[in-house]
Amino acid sequence: MTATTSCTFMTRLVGLCFSLFLSCTAALAQVTVTDPWVRATVAQQKATGAFMKLQAVQDVKLIEAKSPVAGVVEVHEMAMEAGVMKMRAVPGLALPAGQSVELKPGGYHVMLMDLKGQVKEGDVVPLTLVVEGKDGKRQTLEVKATARAMTPGAAPGKAAAHSGMKH
Ligand SMILES: [Cu+2]
Questions:
Q1: The CATH number fitting domain 31-165, selected from 3.40.50.150, 3.30.450.20, 2.60.40.1890, 2.40.160.30
Q2: pTM of the full predicted structure?
Q3: How far does residue 109's CA lie from ligand 1's centre (Å)?
Q4: Ligand 1 centre and the CA of 151: distance in Å?
Q5: What would the DSSP string read from start to end of 73-114?
Q6: What is the CA(167)–ligand 1 centre distance, in A?
Q7: pLDDT tens for residues 118-128?
Q8: CA of 138 to the centre of ligand 1 (A)
Q9: Closest Cα to residue 75, out of 111, 43, 102?
């Protein structure tokens, strides 16, 4: 009798876990984050960028980003202004349903400012992204971005100067 009871209990428990797992997976699948990374910094550097690919199931906007490694985190875009590549904060980055939106050097990025320490190559940087749907519902995404070093030739400063010269 006791064996039957505990068996039923276990079955229920496994069933409960399984349904929780499924609902969690469904929630996470609303926005898929692919290949998140942060540019590694040198000592005393106070800012860097985080990059990734985002794909949403429904139309949402990336409205906020946070990270424990930075005092200030903003969503930025790079744009040409009078022949000079400049970056500025955007109030929200639209993630249209089903479209892959890439945050990459020279384009949109999550700007990490007022860094609390050096971000070394191989470090795992936690990022929290907040997206908002058309219905105003917000969803939080926890992302683990790996710090990567970039070769000097691929640095955004040089890329910006180069594209400036074309104009
Ligand atoms: Cu920036």
A1: 2.60.40.1890
A2: 0.73
A3: 6
A4: 19
A5: EEEEEEEEETTEEEEEE-S-EEE-BT-EEEE-TTS-EEEEEE
A6: 22
A7: 999 999 999 99
A8: 24
A9: 111
